[in-house]
Specification:
The complex is a heterodimer of chains A (about 150) and B (about 625). Chain A is α+β, with helices and mostly antiparallel strands and about 150 residues long. Chain A has two domains: about 1-55; about 70-150, Glutaredoxin (3-Layer(aba) Sandwich), CATH 3.40.30.10. In chain A, about 45% of the residues lie in helices and about 10% in strands. Chain A contains seven helices and four strands. Chain A has helices at about 1-5, 15-25, 35-45, 50-55, 75-80, 85-95, 135-150, and strands at about 70-75, 110-115, 125, 130. In chain A, strand 3 and strand 4 (about 130) form a beta hairpin. By secondary structure, chain B is an alpha/beta fold. Chain B folds into five domains: about 5-110, Glutaredoxin (3-Layer(aba) Sandwich); about 130-340, Rossmann fold; about 350-435, Ubiquitin-like (UB roll) (Roll), CATH 3.10.20.600; about 440-525, NADH-ubiquinone oxidoreductase 51kDa subunit, iron-sulphur binding domain (de novo design (two linked rop proteins)); about 535-610, Alpha-Beta Plaits. In chain B, about 40% of the residues lie in helices and about 15% in strands. The chains are: A alpha+beta (about 150), B alpha/beta (about 625). The interface between A and B is large, with 41 and 58 residues.
């Protein structure tokens, strides 16, 4: 499977970041396994340590399995001023996980992100590619319930 | 295409989308169809209109009626009253402080002081339609340049305009171009830096999402003048919509022959590609960005050599910020003199600022350089929310510094801000009211820089962590004499010794808050008190027994059971166990719970006790 993804891109070093994105996005657990690193290493002719170097440098990549939905709450100062700490507390109690952990049902992983660039609607979070702004504790309940309902 | 009697422009910038703009659009389609007037009304999805706080917003032409905070439930009323009966819905319009209705966009003070150059089309055209872009003068500047100007003449126009980099550095744009233009190489590159990561800045996102063709056209103007045939958009992965729109714009331009070989029948050939980041703030630094495009860790490398000599794949490269590029087409259409007539002696033109924090009109504004902070915050921004007092404004995100009431009449330009200890940065304006603890805010900015430091050079990697630890101690009540001086010493050293802009500017929030709010630092360290009652270790809650009615609500809501008492004796907080959650304050029906600055005597006594050995 990893091999097919690699083949969508030319085997040049500058495509590494794309290959990693694509592999992670298509994996149901949103992560990059050791096996994937070996395949990429073969395909690009790059040592595995270079790939790990890149993989661990960028915050969006994960080397361990994650949930189906990745919640990325913005922890930057504009969101903090607007009360992101309360939102974080709410998310933690609602999901029963700490930052970096995945819920038992494998539905959510809670992460923190540097600025998401929607500061006009702080506090903000992204779930996968969707942005949720002007968050309140009630809104959080709603959003999580909707995703749980839709599975 | 049939003629429509009404154009309905719905803001679909990320802010409004997060507030539900897409649902509103669907609802309009539904209701219009129901009423059988779908063919009379043109629904256009636009980029960011600016006032994010009032989202979802929309403008209805021909009158230019502006509606705010629209919900799907309002849609039938808009269709019935406004579209069918011609009576705009006053309830959804903006109001001034005297409750006067501001019906059209141009009546709203938020827009009145603005001069839109880079944001000209943002919120006015459909960003996914190349036709609309061309209809508003798109690709005219490029065509004129390719057919009438030489690359050197193009650079001269930019030089005359006085345009400087909008990403933070403020380096004159023409100088970068000239260096690459003069360099001899087989291949040159132009990179558009869309790795916007400054907390509090989102203008690049809005430009890429709201007017992608303008950025593409601007990039091609730059490419022509420096002799580059290949361009890269480096956009952070947190902006999926921006990535999608730019990719679409490139395809559309290719379809029209605006990208490719012999553009406008000239000898100029150009192709562009999108590259994305993967979550690393430091990649906004140009050398780090180049390494990231090459497929490596985004570490900065020492300069010189500058990218103008040895950039992407060791070829001469210009890296320009999105907003810088966004100004180019207008400079060529309206003339360098027109652009240079705005602004101050050293800072020409306009600048886009992102207003955030405790300000009434959060959102994107574009104002002439040299505007005062007072005009920007109180006139354009509408002042402070909830009638609180203005305390400080952080300019330039985690690299910038804070300014206070004494600077409200300072003109906003590159030099003046720097002199006062802040910086233009990318244009993030984080406004804070007097509820904010400046020590805590500075700690937060520092936390961001510590997290985002790439770790390559030790002043930034280790030094910032040291500063953070001191800040952490101060805000948790363990500050000691000499901490302020140590912070200043470390800060200055890190600024001088760091490899790239991140480290060179990261101490600024701490240094500037020490400069303007030293008394707050001293209160934290010496008096063990947070004057604004934000730092939880340096404040406490207390129950006023005179007021307490003994209802026990606080005791029942306390998560750590540290409140006890009875109806007769009233209730008391056991300070040592209190976690300062504030539940008691929230639930008290008679407002008997007070938030008090400083540590409670009980806690102080407890801290001063000799430590007893724990039983195991």
């Amino acid at each position: 499977m990893y091999k097919e993804i690699c083949k969508k891109f030319a085997p040049t070093k500058d495509n590494l970041i794309y290959i990693l994105h694509e592999i992670q996005d298509t994996h149901p657990q949103h992560y990059i396994s050791e096996e994937a690193v070996d395949v990429i290493s073969d395909y690009l002719g790059l040592p595995a340590n270079h790939i790990y170097g890149v993989l661990t440098f960028y915050s969006m990549y994960s080397t361990s399995p994650r949930g189906r939905n990745i919640i990325r709450l913005c922890e930057s100062p504009p969101c903090y001023i607007k009360g992101s700490e309360n939102i974080l507390r709410k998310l933690k109690t609602l999901l029963g996980v700490n930052v970096g952990e995945t819920t038992k049902d494998g539905l959510f992983t809670l992460e923190l992100a540097a600025c998401l660039g929607v500061c006009g609607n702080a506090p903000v979070m992204m779930i996968n590619d969707d942005v949720y702004g002007d968050l309140t504790e009630e809104k959080i309940e709603d959003i999580v319930a909707k995703i749980k309902g839709g599975k | 295409m049939s003629l429509k009697r009404i154009d309905l422009l719905i803001c679909c910038g990320s802010g409004c989308v997060s507030a539900g703009a897409l649902k509103i659009k669907e609802k309009f389609h539904e209701v219009l169809k129901e009423k059988g007037i779908s063919n009379e009304i043109n629904i256009i999805e636009t980029g960011c209109m600016g006032p994010c706080d009032y989202g979802p917003v929309m403008v209805i032409y021909p009158e230019g009626i502006f509606y705010r905070s629209v919900s799907p439930d309002d849609v039938p009323e808009i269709v019935e009253d406004h579209f069918l009966k011609g009576r705009p819905v006053k309830r959804l319009m903006m109001h001034d402080p005297k409750e006067q209705v501001l019906s059209t966009q141009k009546d709203i003070p938020f827009y009145q002081k603005q001069v839109k150059v880079a944001l000209e089309n943002c919120g006015y055209i459909d960003p996914e339609s190349v036709d609309e872009y061309i209809a508003t003068g798109g690709y005219e500047a490029l065509g004129t340049i390719l057919t009438t100007l030489t690359p050197q003449q193009t650079i001269d126009v930019v030089k005359a305009s006085g345009l400087r980099g909008r990403g933070g550095g403020g380096f004159p744009t023409y100088m970068k171009w000239q260096m690459v233009h003069d360099a001899k190489a087989e291949q040159k590159y132009i990179i558009c830096n869309g790795d916007e990561g400054d907390p509090g800045a989102f203008m690049d996102r809005s430009l890429l999402e709201g007017d992608p063709h303008r950025i593409l056209e601007g990039m091609m103007i730059a490419a022509y003048s420096i002799g580059a045939s290949k361009g890269f958009f480096y956009i952070r992965a947190e902006y999926p919509l921006a990535i999608k729109r730019i990719k679409l714009a490139i395809e559309q331009a290719r379809g029209f022959g605006l990208i490719g070989e012999n553009i406008f029948d000239s000898s100029f050939c150009f192709d562009a590609e999108v590259r994305t980041g993967a979550g690393a703030f430091v990649c906004g630094e140009e050398m780090a960005l180049i390494h990231s495009i090459e497929g490596s860790r985004g570490n900065p490398t020492p300069k010189p050599p500058y990218p103008a000599y040895k950039g992407l794949w060791d070829m001469p490269t210009v890296v320009n910020n999105v907003e810088t590029i966004g100004n180019l087409t207008t400079i060529f259409l309206k003339g360098a003199d027109w652009f240079a007539s705005m602004g101050t002696e050293t800072s020409k033109g306009t600048k886009v600022f992102a207003l955030t924090g405790d300000i009434r009109n959060t959102g994107l504004v574009e104002v002439p350089m040299g505007i005062t902070l007072r005009e920007m915050i109180f006139e354009v921004g509408g002042g402070i929310t909830n009638d609180k007092k203005f305390k400080a404004v952080q300019l330039g995100g985690p690299s910038g510094g804070c300014l206070t009431t004494q600077h409200l009449d300072v003109p906003v330009d590159y030099e003046t801000l720097k002199e006062k200890g802040a910086m233009m940065g990318s244009g993030g304006v984080i406004v804070m009211n007097d509820n904010n603890c400046m020590v805590n805010v500075a700690k937060y900015f520092l936390d961001f820089s510590v997290d985002e430091s790439c770790g390559k050079c030790s002043p930034c990697r280790i030094g910032l962590k040291q500063m953070y630890d001191i800040m952490e101690r101060i805000t948790s009540g363990e500050g000691k004499d000499g901490d302020i001086e140590e912070l200043q010493r470390l800060g200055e050293a890190i600024k001088q010794l760091s490899l790239c802009g991140l480290g060179q500017s990261a101490p600024n929030p701490v240094l500037s808050t020490i400069r303007y709010f030293r008394d707050e630092y001293e209160a934290h360290i010496r008096d063990k008190a947070c004057p604004t009652k934000v730092c939880s270790a340096l404040m406490h809650f207390d129950i006023d027994k005179e007021r307490c009615i003994g209802c026990s609500l606080c005791a029942r809501k306390c998560p750590v059971n540290c409140i006890s008492g009875s109806r007769e004796d009233k209730y008391t907080i056991h300070q040592i166990d209190c976690v300062k959650c504030g539940n008691c304050l929230d639930v008290c029906p008679v407002k008997a719970v007070n938030k008090i600055s400083g540590m409670h005597q009980e806690v102080l006594d407890h801290l001063n006790q000799p430590i007893e050995e724990e039983d195991h």
